[in-house]
């Protein structure tokens, strides 16, 4: 089911993206709705598939992660069975945090967490370059990762440059 989002939906989404534990009462207060109406809106956003889940942000260092990287992967052929096989393989690796199937000269961007540079090197060599469907990888270290607290707003006809301010 496709849902058309209005300004209030965008504000609700921005609040939830910034803090998934915010109370319904606080959301309602911030967007100017009755708590019951706000709850209905959140439930509609969930049932429509706009809200797909709620997540906790985790400090990688607290889990022993000393280094993060993006591994750009080029497959030998952009052939559906190879894409599916690599995707399945990558998603089963415990070090993989996020996987992006992309267009352009590479086929996948893989965000990984590793204990240290030795772990990262071993991961690249055993989990990626050893795969038959992989022709080339490039590893880029991540110095800092910052997720935007803002949700892009396309509801005000402002286009891509518009953002919902929280």
What does this structure look like?
β2 (96-101) and β3 form a beta hairpin. α2 (24-31) crosses α3. The two termini are 27 Å apart. A 4-stranded antiparallel beta sheet has the order 2-3-1-4. It is elongated. The protein has 166 residues and is an alpha+beta fold. The chain has 2 domains: 7-47, Winged helix-like DNA-binding domain superfamily/Winged helix DNA-binding domain (Arc Repressor Mutant, subunit A, Orthogonal Bundle); 60-142, Lrp/AsnC effector binding domain/regulation of amino acid metabolism (RAM) domain (Alpha-Beta Plaits). The protein is built from 5 helices and 4 strands.
Q: Summarize model confidence as the mean pLDDT.
A: 90
The name of the CATH superfamily of the largest domain reads Lrp/AsnC effector binding domain/regulation of amino acid metabolism (RAM) domain
- Strand-residue fraction? 15-25%
Using the 3D structure, state the CATH architecture of the largest domain: 2-Layer Sandwich
Low-confidence stretches: 157-166
Q: Please give the domain count.
A: 2
**SS elements, strand count:** 4
- Choose one word for the global shape: elongated
Structural class: alpha+beta
- The sequence of SSEs as H and E is HHHEHEEHE
- Give the count of helical stretches: 5
The first-to-last residue Cα distance is 27 Å
* CATH third-tier fold name of the largest domain: Alpha-Beta Plaits
Portion in helices: 25-40%
């Amino acid at each position: 089911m496709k849902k058309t989002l209005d300004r209030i939906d965008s504000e609700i989404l921005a609040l939830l993206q910034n803090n998934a534990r915010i109370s319904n009462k606080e959301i309602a207060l911030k967007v100017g709705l009755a708590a019951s109406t706000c709850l209905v809106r959140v439930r509609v956003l969930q049932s429509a598939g706009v809200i797909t889940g709620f997540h906790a942000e985790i400090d990688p260092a607290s889990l022993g992660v000393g280094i993060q990287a993006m591994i750009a992967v080029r497959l030998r052929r952009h052939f559906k069975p190879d894409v599916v096989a690599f995707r399945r393989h990558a998603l089963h690796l415990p070090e993989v945090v996020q996987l992006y199937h992309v267009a352009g000269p590479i086929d996948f961007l893989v965000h990984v967490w590793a204990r240290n540079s030795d772990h990262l090197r071993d991961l690249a060599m055993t989990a990626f370059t050893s795969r038959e469907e992989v022709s080339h990888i490039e590893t880029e270290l991540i110095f800092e990762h910052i997720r935007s607290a803002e949700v892009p707003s396309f509801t005000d006809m402002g286009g891509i440059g518009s953002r919902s301010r929280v």
